[in-house]
Design goal:
Helix content is 0%, strand content 60%. The chain has no helices and 17 strands.
Length: 190
């Protein structure tokens, strides 16, 4: 296990596979970042004009930041994840709890792009969702939700929705999803 891994470049792709460290930081401009099999307490990836792809990653805290491109995250274990982009969409699939931690917090923010979260969940986890968009719709496909602050237009063309599973605080594992976009559709599926 390394103490830390830091990669910084310009106009070049960063690809890292199967590393184990206390922290992992990758910074580039005008190119993509792809992490596969990276295991770290704190992961930070940052690029401009390039997409970010994370798969089979384990990280207690993950920060993802790009502009003018997409963020694609699949099959990861995390406690707290922040994913921010401008002019790109965010796609999240199959997120699991980090090392026995009971809660997952996902903060997802973009503009001029949509947000799609598919948890592929067969577990008995509780969900709390805060979703905000303008000029597009919101679609939350999670059973047994109580909706707060949702108006009838929220699901069709912009709005703000807060919802949570009945008895959210009593679930042994909980997921809080905070998704915000402008000019993009939000879909969250259990």
């Amino acid at each position: 296990c390394f103490g830390g891994i830091k990669i910084d470049t310009t106009n070049g792709k960063i690809y890292a596979e199967d590393s184990n460290s206390k922290f992992f930081e990758a910074v580039t401009r005008n190119s993509n970042i792809e992490l596969m099999g990276v295991n770290s307490e704190k992961i930070s990836v940052n690029t401009k004009n390039g997409k970010i792809l994370l798969s089979y990653v384990i990280g207690r805290n993950i920060d993802i930041n790009t502009t003018n491109s997409i963020i694609d995250v699949k099959h990861i274990k995390v406690e707290n994840m922040n994913a921010f982009t401008i002019n790109g969409r965010i796609v999240i699939e199959n997120i699991q709890n980090y090392e026995g931690q009971p809660e997952i917090t996902l903060k997802l923010k973009t503009s001029n792009g949509g947000i799609k979260v598919n948890m592929n969940d067969i577990d008995n986890r509780g969900y709390k969702v805060r979703a905000k968009t303008t000029n597009a719709g919101i679609n939350i496909l999670i059973p047994e939700m109580i909706y707060h602050n949702a108006n009838t237009q929220s699901f069709k063309r912009g709005g703000f929705v807060e919802a949570e599973n009945i008895g959210y605080e009593n679930f042994p594992e909980r997921v809080f999803i905070d998704a915000e976009t402008v000019n993009g559709y939000i879909e969250i599926v259990k």
